[in-house]
Amino acid sequence: MSLYKQRRELLNQQLDRNSVVIIVGNTQKTRSKNIKYHFRADNDLFYFSGFAEPDAIAVLRPGHEHPFVLFNRGKDEAAEINFGQRAGQQGAIQQFHADLAFDVLSVEQNLPQLLEHRTKVYYLDEQGLYQHRIFDWINQQRQTTPFDKIKYHRQLLPFAPIVHNMRVLKSPEEIAKIKLAVKASTHAHRAVMRQLKPGLNEGQLEATFLREIANHGSKEVCYPSIVAGGNNACCLHYEDNNCSLADGDLLLIDAGGEYQHYCSDITRTMPINGKFSVEQTQLYQLVLNAIDEAIAQLKPGLCWSQIYTTCMQVLAQGLIDLGILTGSFDEVWQSESYKQFTIHKTGHFLGLDVHDVGSYHDNQGQWLKLQENMVFTIEPGIYIPQHCLTVEEKWRGIGLRVEDDILITKTGYENLSAAVPRTISEIESLMSSAEE
Ligand code: GLY
Ligand code: MN
Ligand code: MN
Q1: Rounded to the nearest whole angstrom, what is the distance from the C-alpha of residue 265 to the centroid of ligand 2?
Q2: 100 pairs with which residues across the strands?
Q3: Ligand 3 centre from 225 Cα, in Å?
Q4: CATH assignment of 2-166, given 3.40.350.10, 3.40.720.10, 3.60.110.10, 3.40.50.10490?
Protein backbone atom coordinates (compact mmCIF):
# COMPACT_ATOMS: atom_id res chain seq x y z
CA MET A 1 0.00 0.00 0.00
CA SER A 2 1.36 3.45 -0.84
CA LEU A 3 2.27 5.81 1.95
CA TYR A 4 -0.53 8.13 0.91
CA LYS A 5 -3.09 5.34 0.91
CA GLN A 6 -1.92 4.31 4.38
CA ARG A 7 -2.55 7.85 5.58
CA ARG A 8 -6.01 7.89 4.03
CA GLU A 9 -6.78 4.59 5.78
CA LEU A 10 -5.56 5.98 9.08
CA LEU A 11 -7.78 8.99 8.58
CA ASN A 12 -10.77 6.79 7.73
CA GLN A 13 -10.40 5.07 11.09
CA GLN A 14 -10.89 8.42 12.83
CA LEU A 15 -13.96 9.56 10.89
CA ASP A 16 -17.59 8.49 10.97
CA ARG A 17 -19.00 6.70 7.90
CA ASN A 18 -21.26 9.68 7.23
CA SER A 19 -18.27 12.00 6.81
CA VAL A 20 -16.64 13.48 3.77
CA VAL A 21 -13.41 15.47 3.62
CA ILE A 22 -12.80 18.18 1.04
CA ILE A 23 -9.24 19.50 0.75
CA VAL A 24 -8.76 22.34 -1.71
CA GLY A 25 -5.17 22.62 -2.90
CA ASN A 26 -3.27 25.76 -3.89
CA THR A 27 -3.49 27.69 -7.11
CA GLN A 28 -0.46 29.39 -8.65
CA LYS A 29 0.15 32.94 -7.47
CA THR A 30 1.03 35.76 -9.84
CA ARG A 31 4.45 37.34 -9.50
CA SER A 32 3.91 39.96 -12.17
CA LYS A 33 1.50 40.14 -15.11
CA ASN A 34 1.59 36.67 -16.72
CA ILE A 35 4.59 35.44 -14.71
CA LYS A 36 3.75 33.09 -11.85
CA TYR A 37 5.69 32.29 -8.71
CA HIS A 38 7.19 28.82 -8.60
CA PHE A 39 4.36 26.59 -7.41
CA ARG A 40 4.30 24.71 -4.14
CA ALA A 41 1.52 22.24 -3.40
CA ASP A 42 -0.73 22.51 -0.36
CA ASN A 43 0.85 20.30 2.29
CA ASP A 44 -2.37 18.74 3.58
CA LEU A 45 -3.51 17.73 0.10
CA PHE A 46 -0.04 16.41 -0.63
CA TYR A 47 0.01 14.48 2.67
CA PHE A 48 -3.00 12.40 1.65
CA SER A 49 -2.40 12.15 -2.10
CA GLY A 50 1.23 12.79 -3.08
CA PHE A 51 -0.28 15.05 -5.73
CA ALA A 52 1.69 18.26 -6.26
CA GLU A 53 0.11 20.05 -9.24
CA PRO A 54 -1.77 23.33 -8.89
CA ASP A 55 -5.59 23.52 -8.82
CA ALA A 56 -6.44 20.16 -7.28
CA ILE A 57 -9.22 19.21 -4.86
CA ALA A 58 -9.23 15.92 -2.98
CA VAL A 59 -12.50 14.44 -1.74
CA LEU A 60 -12.17 11.60 0.77
CA ARG A 61 -15.17 9.42 1.67
CA PRO A 62 -14.57 6.91 4.46
CA GLY A 63 -16.22 3.55 3.78
CA HIS A 64 -17.34 4.43 0.24
CA GLU A 65 -16.57 2.08 -2.65
CA HIS A 66 -14.79 5.07 -4.28
CA PRO A 67 -13.20 6.67 -1.22
CA PHE A 68 -10.60 8.88 -2.94
CA VAL A 69 -11.77 11.33 -5.58
CA LEU A 70 -9.42 13.84 -7.18
CA PHE A 71 -10.34 16.93 -9.14
CA ASN A 72 -7.31 18.06 -11.13
CA ARG A 73 -6.35 19.91 -14.29
CA GLY A 74 -7.23 18.23 -17.56
CA LYS A 75 -4.65 17.35 -20.18
CA ASP A 76 -3.92 20.33 -22.45
CA GLU A 77 -1.28 20.00 -25.14
CA ALA A 78 -0.61 23.72 -25.55
CA ALA A 79 -0.45 24.39 -21.82
CA GLU A 80 1.82 21.39 -21.31
CA ILE A 81 4.25 22.55 -24.03
CA ASN A 82 4.43 25.91 -22.29
CA PHE A 83 4.43 24.95 -18.63
CA GLY A 84 5.10 21.24 -18.27
CA GLN A 85 3.26 17.95 -18.05
CA ARG A 86 -0.05 17.37 -16.30
CA ALA A 87 -1.14 14.03 -14.92
CA GLY A 88 -4.68 14.53 -16.18
CA GLN A 89 -7.52 12.33 -14.94
CA GLN A 90 -5.92 9.15 -16.25
CA GLY A 91 -2.71 9.95 -14.38
CA ALA A 92 -4.71 10.77 -11.25
CA ILE A 93 -6.10 7.24 -11.30
CA GLN A 94 -3.05 5.34 -12.53
CA GLN A 95 -0.21 7.19 -10.78
CA PHE A 96 -1.95 8.63 -7.75
CA HIS A 97 -4.47 5.84 -7.18
CA ALA A 98 -7.56 8.03 -7.18
CA ASP A 99 -10.73 5.92 -7.35
CA LEU A 100 -12.38 8.59 -9.48
CA ALA A 101 -10.95 11.67 -11.17
CA PHE A 102 -12.66 14.69 -12.69
CA ASP A 103 -11.43 17.78 -14.47
CA VAL A 104 -11.29 20.56 -11.90
CA LEU A 105 -13.26 22.73 -14.32
CA SER A 106 -16.24 20.43 -13.67
CA VAL A 107 -16.18 20.88 -9.90
CA GLU A 108 -19.55 22.67 -9.81
CA GLN A 109 -21.28 19.84 -11.67
CA ASN A 110 -19.51 16.93 -10.01
CA LEU A 111 -18.56 17.79 -6.47
CA PRO A 112 -21.98 18.25 -4.82
CA GLN A 113 -23.13 14.76 -5.82
CA LEU A 114 -20.10 13.24 -4.07
CA LEU A 115 -21.57 14.44 -0.78
CA GLU A 116 -24.58 12.15 -1.06
CA HIS A 117 -25.42 10.49 2.29
CA ARG A 118 -22.56 12.39 3.93
CA THR A 119 -23.81 14.71 6.64
CA LYS A 120 -20.50 15.74 8.18
CA VAL A 121 -18.45 17.79 5.74
CA TYR A 122 -14.86 18.40 6.84
CA TYR A 123 -13.42 21.26 4.82
CA LEU A 124 -9.92 22.64 4.37
CA ASP A 125 -9.22 25.42 1.91
CA GLU A 126 -6.05 27.26 2.94
CA GLN A 127 -6.24 29.86 0.17
CA GLY A 128 -10.03 30.28 0.49
CA LEU A 129 -10.52 29.43 -3.19
CA TYR A 130 -13.98 27.89 -2.82
CA GLN A 131 -15.12 29.35 0.48
CA HIS A 132 -17.79 31.32 -1.42
CA ARG A 133 -19.13 28.07 -2.91
CA ILE A 134 -18.99 25.56 -0.07
CA PHE A 135 -22.37 26.43 1.48
CA ASP A 136 -24.08 26.09 -1.90
CA TRP A 137 -22.45 22.70 -2.39
CA ILE A 138 -23.47 21.34 0.97
CA ASN A 139 -27.02 22.70 0.65
CA GLN A 140 -27.53 21.81 -3.00
CA GLN A 141 -29.21 18.46 -2.40
CA ARG A 142 -31.68 20.03 0.03
CA GLN A 143 -32.53 22.82 -2.38
CA THR A 144 -33.12 20.55 -5.38
CA THR A 145 -34.88 17.60 -3.68
CA PRO A 146 -38.71 17.37 -3.74
CA PHE A 147 -40.48 17.79 -0.40
CA ASP A 148 -41.31 14.07 -0.10
CA LYS A 149 -37.66 12.92 -0.37
CA ILE A 150 -35.06 12.84 2.38
CA LYS A 151 -33.18 16.12 2.67
CA TYR A 152 -29.71 16.14 4.11
CA HIS A 153 -28.88 18.75 6.71
CA ARG A 154 -25.13 18.89 6.65
CA GLN A 155 -22.66 20.09 9.20
CA LEU A 156 -19.58 21.98 8.04
CA LEU A 157 -16.58 21.10 10.18
CA PRO A 158 -12.93 22.17 10.16
CA PHE A 159 -10.56 19.48 8.92
CA ALA A 160 -7.34 21.21 9.97
CA PRO A 161 -7.36 20.06 13.62
CA ILE A 162 -7.61 16.41 12.55
CA VAL A 163 -4.91 16.38 9.87
CA HIS A 164 -2.59 18.70 11.75
CA ASN A 165 -2.73 16.44 14.76
CA MET A 166 -1.80 13.51 12.49
CA ARG A 167 1.15 15.42 11.06
CA VAL A 168 2.83 16.09 14.42
CA LEU A 169 4.33 12.61 14.76
CA LYS A 170 6.58 11.80 11.82
CA SER A 171 6.77 8.42 10.13
CA PRO A 172 10.15 6.80 9.32
CA GLU A 173 9.77 7.93 5.68
CA GLU A 174 9.19 11.51 6.76
CA ILE A 175 12.11 11.45 9.17
CA ALA A 176 14.36 10.11 6.40
CA LYS A 177 13.39 13.05 4.16
CA ILE A 178 13.88 15.63 6.89
CA LYS A 179 17.32 14.14 7.51
CA LEU A 180 18.17 14.52 3.82
CA ALA A 181 16.99 18.14 3.88
CA VAL A 182 19.16 18.75 6.94
CA LYS A 183 22.10 16.99 5.28
CA ALA A 184 21.92 19.23 2.21
CA SER A 185 21.70 22.29 4.45
CA THR A 186 24.62 21.06 6.52
CA HIS A 187 26.86 20.97 3.44
CA ALA A 188 25.61 24.42 2.47
CA HIS A 189 26.17 26.00 5.89
CA ARG A 190 29.67 24.57 5.95
CA ALA A 191 30.37 25.98 2.48
CA VAL A 192 29.20 29.42 3.60
CA MET A 193 31.48 29.28 6.64
CA ARG A 194 34.45 28.36 4.48
CA GLN A 195 33.79 31.13 1.98
CA LEU A 196 32.99 33.94 4.44
CA LYS A 197 35.38 36.91 4.59
CA PRO A 198 35.13 40.70 4.88
CA GLY A 199 34.04 42.53 1.76
CA LEU A 200 31.80 39.81 0.38
CA ASN A 201 28.16 40.67 -0.17
CA GLU A 202 25.42 38.88 1.77
CA GLY A 203 23.91 37.89 -1.58
CA GLN A 204 27.04 35.98 -2.60
CA LEU A 205 26.70 33.77 0.45
CA GLU A 206 23.02 33.26 -0.22
CA ALA A 207 24.00 32.07 -3.70
CA THR A 208 26.59 29.70 -2.23
CA PHE A 209 23.95 28.22 0.05
CA LEU A 210 21.59 27.64 -2.87
CA ARG A 211 24.29 26.07 -5.01
CA GLU A 212 25.39 23.70 -2.27
CA ILE A 213 21.92 22.48 -1.36
CA ALA A 214 21.33 21.84 -5.07
CA ASN A 215 24.56 19.82 -5.14
CA HIS A 216 23.01 17.66 -2.44
CA GLY A 217 19.60 16.99 -3.91
CA SER A 218 17.67 19.96 -2.56
CA LYS A 219 16.66 22.37 -5.28
CA GLU A 220 15.10 25.07 -3.16
CA VAL A 221 14.99 26.63 0.26
CA CYS A 222 11.83 26.24 2.31
CA TYR A 223 11.77 29.91 3.38
CA PRO A 224 13.65 32.98 2.16
CA SER A 225 17.22 32.72 3.44
CA ILE A 226 18.25 35.22 6.08
CA VAL A 227 21.87 36.22 5.42
CA ALA A 228 22.45 39.12 7.74
CA GLY A 229 25.70 40.91 8.54
CA GLY A 230 26.10 43.02 11.71
CA ASN A 231 23.05 44.99 12.73
CA ASN A 232 20.93 43.44 9.94
CA ALA A 233 20.68 40.32 12.09
CA CYS A 234 18.53 42.27 14.57
CA CYS A 235 15.72 42.16 12.00
CA LEU A 236 14.33 38.66 12.57
CA HIS A 237 13.14 38.02 9.02
CA TYR A 238 15.73 40.13 7.18
CA GLU A 239 15.83 38.90 3.60
CA ASP A 240 17.26 41.78 1.52
CA ASN A 241 20.64 40.03 1.63
CA ASN A 242 22.32 42.82 -0.31
CA CYS A 243 24.84 44.42 2.04
CA SER A 244 28.60 44.24 2.10
CA LEU A 245 30.03 42.32 5.06
CA ALA A 246 32.24 44.31 7.42
CA ASP A 247 35.40 43.16 9.17
CA GLY A 248 34.62 42.86 12.88
CA ASP A 249 30.89 42.15 12.48
CA LEU A 250 29.06 38.85 12.91
CA LEU A 251 27.15 37.11 10.15
CA LEU A 252 23.87 35.37 11.01
CA ILE A 253 22.65 32.90 8.42
CA ASP A 254 19.28 31.23 8.89
CA ALA A 255 18.68 29.01 5.87
CA GLY A 256 17.23 25.60 5.13
CA GLY A 257 16.93 23.43 2.07
CA GLU A 258 13.82 21.43 1.27
CA TYR A 259 13.99 17.77 0.26
CA GLN A 260 10.98 16.25 -1.49
CA HIS A 261 8.63 18.67 0.28
CA TYR A 262 10.30 18.25 3.71
CA CYS A 263 12.02 21.14 5.44
CA SER A 264 15.13 21.95 7.40
CA ASP A 265 15.70 25.17 9.35
CA ILE A 266 19.18 25.90 10.65
CA THR A 267 20.81 29.07 11.97
CA ARG A 268 24.46 29.72 12.63
CA THR A 269 26.23 32.92 13.62
CA MET A 270 29.92 33.48 12.91
CA PRO A 271 32.56 36.20 12.83
CA ILE A 272 33.00 37.69 9.37
CA ASN A 273 36.78 37.91 9.83
CA GLY A 274 37.05 34.37 11.21
CA LYS A 275 37.73 35.27 14.85
CA PHE A 276 35.10 36.08 17.51
CA SER A 277 35.90 39.31 19.43
CA VAL A 278 35.77 39.30 23.24
CA GLU A 279 32.16 40.59 23.33
CA GLN A 280 31.05 38.34 20.49
CA THR A 281 32.59 35.35 22.28
CA GLN A 282 30.73 36.18 25.50
CA LEU A 283 27.35 36.58 23.83
CA TYR A 284 27.81 33.64 21.47
CA GLN A 285 28.83 31.31 24.28
CA LEU A 286 25.80 32.43 26.27
CA VAL A 287 23.39 31.55 23.45
CA LEU A 288 25.19 28.26 22.87
CA ASN A 289 24.91 27.44 26.58
CA ALA A 290 21.18 28.18 26.42
CA ILE A 291 20.49 25.85 23.50
CA ASP A 292 22.79 23.15 24.89
CA GLU A 293 21.09 23.22 28.27
CA ALA A 294 17.68 22.96 26.63
CA ILE A 295 18.82 20.12 24.36
CA ALA A 296 20.32 18.18 27.26
CA GLN A 297 16.86 17.89 28.88
CA LEU A 298 15.08 16.54 25.82
CA LYS A 299 13.23 13.25 26.07
CA PRO A 300 9.68 11.98 25.74
CA GLY A 301 7.49 13.44 28.47
CA LEU A 302 9.25 16.80 28.77
CA CYS A 303 6.84 19.73 28.64
CA TRP A 304 7.13 21.80 25.43
CA SER A 305 7.24 25.06 27.41
CA GLN A 306 10.24 23.83 29.39
CA ILE A 307 12.48 24.36 26.35
CA TYR A 308 11.65 28.08 26.28
CA THR A 309 11.89 28.40 30.05
CA THR A 310 15.32 26.78 30.17
CA CYS A 311 16.67 28.94 27.35
CA MET A 312 15.33 32.11 28.96
CA GLN A 313 16.70 31.24 32.41
CA VAL A 314 20.19 30.76 30.98
CA LEU A 315 19.99 33.90 28.85
CA ALA A 316 18.57 36.07 31.65
CA GLN A 317 21.30 35.04 34.10
CA GLY A 318 23.97 35.48 31.43
CA LEU A 319 22.77 38.95 30.49
CA ILE A 320 22.94 39.91 34.18
CA ASP A 321 26.46 38.47 34.50
CA LEU A 322 27.62 40.48 31.48
CA GLY A 323 26.13 43.69 32.93
CA ILE A 324 23.67 44.07 30.05
CA LEU A 325 20.73 43.64 32.41
CA THR A 326 20.64 45.06 35.94
CA GLY A 327 19.00 43.61 39.03
CA SER A 328 18.84 40.20 40.66
CA PHE A 329 17.77 37.12 38.71
CA ASP A 330 14.38 37.20 40.46
CA GLU A 331 13.85 40.84 39.54
CA VAL A 332 14.83 40.26 35.93
CA TRP A 333 12.67 37.12 35.74
CA GLN A 334 9.64 38.82 37.30
CA SER A 335 9.87 41.95 35.17
CA GLU A 336 10.72 39.91 32.04
CA SER A 337 13.29 42.57 31.17
CA TYR A 338 15.34 39.87 29.40
CA LYS A 339 12.64 39.75 26.70
CA GLN A 340 13.85 43.05 25.21
CA PHE A 341 16.93 41.15 23.98
CA THR A 342 15.54 37.65 23.41
CA ILE A 343 12.40 38.81 21.51
CA HIS A 344 11.06 35.54 20.08
CA LYS A 345 9.96 32.05 21.06
CA THR A 346 12.50 29.27 20.89
CA GLY A 347 11.16 26.75 18.42
CA HIS A 348 8.46 25.16 16.32
CA PHE A 349 7.58 21.84 14.72
CA LEU A 350 9.34 21.02 11.47
CA GLY A 351 8.05 18.87 8.62
CA LEU A 352 6.23 19.61 5.39
CA ASP A 353 6.00 23.19 6.63
CA VAL A 354 8.97 24.93 8.12
CA HIS A 355 6.72 26.23 10.89
CA ASP A 356 4.97 22.92 10.84
CA VAL A 357 1.37 22.40 11.87
CA GLY A 358 0.10 20.95 15.11
CA SER A 359 -0.98 22.38 18.42
CA TYR A 360 1.49 22.97 21.23
CA HIS A 361 -1.31 22.24 23.71
CA ASP A 362 -3.22 19.06 24.42
CA ASN A 363 -7.02 18.72 24.50
CA GLN A 364 -7.10 19.91 28.11
CA GLY A 365 -5.26 23.09 27.17
CA GLN A 366 -2.06 21.94 28.87
CA TRP A 367 1.34 22.31 27.21
CA LEU A 368 2.13 19.37 25.00
CA LYS A 369 4.54 16.73 26.26
CA LEU A 370 7.32 15.66 23.90
CA GLN A 371 6.80 12.31 22.17
CA GLU A 372 8.97 10.00 20.13
CA ASN A 373 9.05 11.06 16.43
CA MET A 374 8.31 14.71 17.00
CA VAL A 375 10.66 16.93 15.00
CA PHE A 376 11.16 20.57 15.93
CA THR A 377 13.67 23.39 16.10
CA ILE A 378 15.30 24.99 19.11
CA GLU A 379 16.50 28.52 18.39
CA PRO A 380 17.41 30.91 21.18
CA GLY A 381 18.95 34.26 20.27
CA ILE A 382 20.10 37.61 21.58
CA TYR A 383 19.56 40.85 19.67
CA ILE A 384 21.04 44.21 20.64
CA PRO A 385 20.38 46.62 17.81
CA GLN A 386 22.58 49.59 17.00
CA HIS A 387 19.90 51.99 18.23
CA CYS A 388 19.71 50.37 21.67
CA LEU A 389 21.28 53.18 23.69
CA THR A 390 20.52 51.65 27.09
CA VAL A 391 23.45 49.22 26.84
CA GLU A 392 27.16 49.90 26.45
CA GLU A 393 28.22 50.64 22.88
CA LYS A 394 30.48 47.60 22.68
CA TRP A 395 27.44 45.28 22.69
CA ARG A 396 25.44 47.10 20.04
CA GLY A 397 24.85 45.94 16.48
CA ILE A 398 24.91 42.27 17.43
CA GLY A 399 22.18 39.82 16.45
CA LEU A 400 22.93 36.25 17.32
CA ARG A 401 21.01 32.99 17.08
CA VAL A 402 21.82 29.29 17.07
CA GLU A 403 19.12 27.00 15.66
CA ASP A 404 19.17 23.22 15.52
CA ASP A 405 16.72 20.62 14.21
CA ILE A 406 15.79 17.98 16.77
CA LEU A 407 14.20 14.54 16.53
CA ILE A 408 12.74 13.06 19.71
CA THR A 409 13.66 9.38 20.04
CA LYS A 410 12.36 6.63 22.33
CA THR A 411 14.74 7.55 25.13
CA GLY A 412 16.04 10.99 24.28
CA TYR A 413 16.79 13.00 21.19
CA GLU A 414 18.92 13.29 18.07
CA ASN A 415 20.31 16.67 17.07
CA LEU A 416 19.96 16.33 13.30
CA SER A 417 21.97 19.48 12.55
CA ALA A 418 24.85 18.82 14.94
CA ALA A 419 27.29 18.44 12.03
CA VAL A 420 27.03 22.15 11.24
CA PRO A 421 29.85 23.64 13.34
CA ARG A 422 28.38 25.28 16.42
CA THR A 423 31.10 25.72 19.05
CA ILE A 424 33.45 28.71 18.80
CA SER A 425 36.46 26.51 18.14
CA GLU A 426 34.62 24.42 15.51
CA ILE A 427 33.51 27.56 13.66
CA GLU A 428 36.89 29.33 13.84
CA SER A 429 38.69 26.21 12.79
CA LEU A 430 36.47 25.59 9.74
CA MET A 431 36.72 29.25 8.75
CA SER A 432 40.51 29.19 8.92
CA SER A 433 40.79 26.12 6.68
CA ALA A 434 40.62 26.83 2.95
CA GLU A 435 39.58 23.23 2.34
CA GLU A 436 37.69 20.88 4.65
N1 GLY B 1 13.72 30.55 9.61
C2 GLY B 1 12.52 30.76 10.27
C3 GLY B 1 12.57 30.30 11.64
O4 GLY B 1 13.64 30.04 12.16
O5 GLY B 1 11.60 30.11 12.29
MN1 MN C 1 12.99 28.14 13.01
MN1 MN D 1 15.32 29.51 11.09
Answers
A1: 5
A2: 69
A3: 9
A4: 3.40.350.10
